[in-house]
User: What shape does this take?
Amino acid sequence: MDTKKFLMSICDASGVAGYEEEAAGLIKSAFAEAGCETSIDKLGNVIALKKGRGKFKVAFFAHMDEIGLVVINLDKNGFIRFSQIGGYDQRTLLGQEVIIHGREKVYGVIGIKPPHLTPSGDAMKSVKMSDMLIDTGYGEEKLKELVNVGDIITIKRKTIELKGDVVSGKAIDDRGCVAVMFECLKNLKDFNHDADIYFVSTTREEVGSQGAIVAAYGIEPDIGVALDVDFAKTPELKPTRTCEMGKGTVIQMGPNIHPKVFELFKNAAKDNGIPYQVDVMTTGQSGTDARVVQISREGVASGLLGLPLKYMHTSVECVAMKDVTNMGKLMSAMIMGLNGKDLEEQLCL
Amino acid sequence: MSVDRTALIKKLTDANGLPGDEGEIRNIIRTELEGHTDSIITDRLGNLIVTKNSGRPGLHIGLSAHMDEVGMAVLRINEAGLLTIGTFGVDPRLLPSKIVSIGKDKVKGVIGTKPVHMTKPDERERAIDLDALYIDIGASTKEEAEKSVSLGDFVYFDSEFVEFGERKIKAKALDDRLGCAVMIEILKSDVKTPITAIFCSQEEVGLRGSAVAANRAHVDVYINLEGTVSADMPSTDAHERVTVLGKGPALSLIDRTSVYLKEYINKIVAAAEENGIPYQYRATGAGGTDAANYHVAHGGTPVIGLATPCRYLHSPVSVCDLRDYENTVKLVRAFIQKYGNSARAES
Assistant: This one.
């Protein structure tokens, strides 16, 4: 399957943290069709294994869960009050179409008070999420049959293509990196390698990476690399806190990263002419799966690669396909670069 | 009938027509009305003026609805290939995290926002200033963007017609493509009285199309058809709801630009009650419509204001109840049947 098509199809699917089944099903079958042994563990992680010569294990972790909303109250006349799972900016929710995953999929919209009921001062304020309502178009009784408190809600968004081979939609954080793993797998299709490679689509990253904790424990990798989206530059952001979209993978460095893994990726990029950027985590631990992978069991040589993404945690996140392709290349180059080498020597601090 | 009806509303609302850019809507209406009219003209302002049953005896009825909708336009293209925007009637708070369609080629773009991770809590309590929002079409330079879009291109929300809930529909531009749809249904029916139907341009920017259409048309009474505000959400106090979905078409008594003639309000109420058609009064004095221009035209012409209630008016996700729309069509037909044969002098 074409990687872009794969990416667009998994982003259209729903998979809020803790409720990843729909996305997981698509991801599992795509990796299985591409020749991997696939399994799903107790926390819902999809683990796809591409066997090598079995000398050591390299695991990549990209989270397939997305942020979402949840029903907290059925109000009068078929309206729903909601809260969130993971973090939205409430200002991105007005006027959105949503799917409530109740007994069946129920369509709704997040409305807005009409201008005549909006005092002029209010137009300068954002509407609080706690004041927003989802309109389902059903009466109270019928809605009670279809929807319960605790049901998950996703923004209804069909992934689109923009100019410059940019793809836009929801959940590209972090299914963009699931697509990167798929791309890497395709690059390695006709090659053998010393490493057994685990492509893990993790659950629950947006609420604390519980998926990756369990997956890393189960796999016991020698090298564990988290793949996650990174803030791409837009006019309102500080250049010191952003990367550039279209300029290649962000290889992260900092205490959360094994310095030799950092070097392995940097050298793989240089040796193979693959574009990359370097960024430094100024926090001791990353907000990604790398945080939990590094301290799994007796310690894992950890890495973190960033895929540049604009408008993170909105339903119009943007990624450049050439960054997806280049990140896949970087990963396969790093894997092939380990062939014939002594892993202990490579990772010795 | 119901299938045709929703297909017609879908066709009209999925199409784009900002003030001054109503061509797509005119073309749909012209095609729909082929073979059902005496004449169709487009005037200098882009109004589409249609006559039917000209010269026949009976009350000459004027129908009017506006074709234009609210939206945005490309204001500047910056060095990074991003487009800043101006709005016509859209609350800028609706812009973040939306897909838009730009210009005649319908180039897709997105309006993103700063990642929530990089915002401060007090910042999230404030609306984002319109000048701080922009459209990203995927271009990375000004030159690249200019290959696809130009200054002044009109910008539309990407929002398709959806049927949902209990006979609800969601679309952009229900205000006032619903009015256009009512008129198309009446013009395609077997109605016998003379009708002049005005599909107006530029209502949303100051009732400008009807200002000239009112001078061209000569009728005995107008029915101005609108999509109007409903704020019947549980968060709104009962007295502020204006109209309630499912309670039938809303009759105007008074608004910002017209005080409606009591005699004609009584007439349409009589038509509704005799035919068991539900109706409600539009309970606000806010908002202005094209009725403003008709009721002072040619030394004064009676106007009836009739509207289908819509939630979230002027947003990409306006919602109405199809039963209210159906009852609006019924009520217009009932009015024409009841009064259409009366002599002109009587009115």
